Structures are given as structure tokens and as C-alpha cells.
Amino acid sequence: MNPQERMAALERLPFENIGSSERGAHRFWAQVRLILKNRAMLLLFVKRDLKSRYKDSALGFFWTLVRPITQLLIYYVVLGKFLGAERGIPEFAIYIFSGLTIYGLFSEMVMGGTASVIANAGLVKKVYLPRELFPLATIGSALFNFAIQLVILLVATLAMGSFPWTPNMVYAIPSLLVILLYGTALALLLSAVNVYLRDVQYLVEVVLMVLMWASPILYAWKYVRNVLGDGILLSIYNSNPVTMAVLGFQRAFWTAGDPTNTSDPAMHAAYPENLMMNLWIAALIGAVGVFLAQRLFARLQGNFAQML
């Protein structure tokens, strides 16, 4: 078949829209179905991200363990021992590592997701596939690293004789859900905006650093309450979904701070009231955020190839 015949054959083919022509919530669910249809490609991207991260490294995935353990030791020694932050916080190492574990997941999801579309510029310009796969792949690799750190956390609690086999473990479910929903929403939103405004990825680094210190990871929530009181300022502080998720994760894995199992009156003020209910409310809002972020991503992705 000569080139003219091939062109004529292509002209006779019916035009097919790539993606869904539906709108609103129907378009959202159509895109979700398309992503599920391409789940093999998503898994391939996750594996690629994990392998490329430690490519040509002699120790490979061992480095996934080194960073959180080193971070834990630094905070434990410098803040806990040298600066005395461990006073009033029993089992300080478990306390900070439980907070660092859940916050590390959020930070990696947002940071990796923000740069994901630009990092895959070659694929965006050459091949059509659901562009949401790129930020979702970084979320998958972040979950892999989170699972490893969670195992370390559980081993640490077992070594210290405080394995969290208590009803408070249920707090881990809404806490993780809140982080996944807000992290996914921000990854989708920021990955799209970053294509048009490259300064976003640098701004995200600064905001994540501030947000870490704005969450009760390296200090106890009760100290925040002592400073802010029980008024509007404390309510604003508690309304941060990352703060709620960190507190929920600590409630799940930090058994030494369980208000129901200690006679220390200070521990009875270790968490805000109605934490479980607030976590589920935050999760509901986060689900709405994922929907809105995906719709904005869909609007912006049309010019990705040109901008890249």
C-alpha cells in the first residue's frame, strides 16, 4: 500500500474521542474507570519510579530504611536529649516516629506529585494515556516507602514492649485516609499548575517544611493548647487536616500517651476532643477535594504538551 492509499484509508476511519465526553461527576467517574482500565500501566510506572530512585546503587532499597532511621535518631538525640523535649512525653522516640511516618507519606505524595508531569514530559508529548497516572504513580511509590517505615515503627514498639494492640488502632484508618485524600488532591492540583508555573515546586518545598513544624510531630499537642488556650486560635490549629492525621496516628501507635491507660493528668489533655469524628469529617472534605482537583486537572491538561 502506497502512502496515498494509506492516507485515504485513514481518512475513512471514524473519528473517536480519546477520553470521555461526559461532564461533571459523570466525567469524573468515567476518568476513574479509564484509570482502572490502565492499572497495569500505573503499576509499571510505580515500579519504574522505585527502580530509578535507587538505580546503580549497591544497597538499593536499603536506603529506604536509612533515611527515616537517621531522621529519627537526629530528632531523638538533638530535640529529645539535648533540648529536653522528651520531658513530659513518655516513649518520645515512638511519639515522634509515628508522626514522622504519616507526615512523610503526605510530604512525599505532594512533593513527588507536583513534579510528576514535568518529569514525564517525553511521554506526555508523544503518547496518550490518562495524565493522572503520573501523579498517581508517585503516590504508589510513596505508599511503598510508607509501608516500610510502618514496619519499622511496629518493630520499634515491639522492642520497647508497647506494641499498639489496643482499640485505639482504629484511629490509624481515618488518619491514613485523610492523608491519602488530601495528598492525592494536592498532587493532582499542583502537578497541573506546576506545568504552567514552575515556581510552584519550590514553593511546595517551603510550605511542606512549615507544615511539618505546624503539626505536633516534634512537640506535644498539649503544649500548643497551653500557649493558644481553648479559643479560636486552637480551633484553627486543630482544623488542619494534617494535624488531625498526625494526632490520630499517634493515638493509634503511641500507647504511652493513651489517656485511658495512664494516671498522669497531663496525658488526659494529650489530644483534642472528638478527634475521631473530626477525622471522618476531614476525610469527607478531602474526598470533595479530590473531585475538584481532578476536574481542574482535566481542564488544564489540554495544553500540557505545548507547555512542555
Rg, rounded, reads: 23 Å
- N-to-C terminal Cα separation, in Å? 36 Å
In N-to-C order, the SSE pattern is HHHHHHHHHHHHHH
The class by helix and strand makeup works out as mainly alpha
Strand elements, count:
0
Quickly count the helices.
14
Tell me about this structure:
Helix 5 (92-119) packs antiparallel against helix 7, helix 5 runs antiparallel to helix 9 and helix 8 runs antiparallel to helix 12 (241-253). The model is unreliable at 15-21 (pLDDT under 50). The radius of gyration is 23 Å and the shape is elongated. The relative contact order is 0.13. It is mostly helical. It has one domain. The chain is 70% helix and 0% strand. The protein contains 14 helices and no strands.
In short:
With 308 residues, this protein is mainly α.
Main attributes?
elongated, 14 helices, about 70% helix
Topology, pairings included?
Elements: H1 3-12, H2 24-37, H3 39-53, H4 63-82, H5 92-119, H6 121-126, H7 133-159, H8 172-196, H9 200-213, H10 221-228, H11 232-238, H12 241-253, H13 275-300, H14 304-307
